[in-house]
Amino acid sequence: MRLESELTGTKLELFSGRLIVIKRTERLFIVVDNEKVSAETTAYKKIPQILSFTDEDGNDNMKQVIEANYRQVKADVVLIVESEMERIKNDPDLQHLIQKDG
Length: 102
Prior knowledge:
The chain is α+β, with helices and mostly antiparallel strands.
C-alpha cells in the first residue's frame, strides 16, 4: 500500500490592513497493492474459539452468561469489602479508619 497526498490548507494574511483568506484543500490517495493484500490474507490463521455462548441445543446464551458473571463479580466485591472491614475493625492500628455512627 502506498500513500500519496497533496497538502493544502487555509492561510490568513494581513496585507495593507486587509485580511486575506487563502483557501486550500487536501487530497489523499491510497494506492493498494491487491496482489500483496491477497497474499497476506490467504496466510491468515483462524483465531481459535475460546468460549462458546451456545448451549447444547444451539441456543445463544451470551446474555445469561454475562449476567451470571456480573452477579458473581458483584458478590465477590461485597465479600471482599466485608472481610476487609472486619479485618480493619480487628486491627488496633487501623480501627481509626472506620467512621463511627452518629
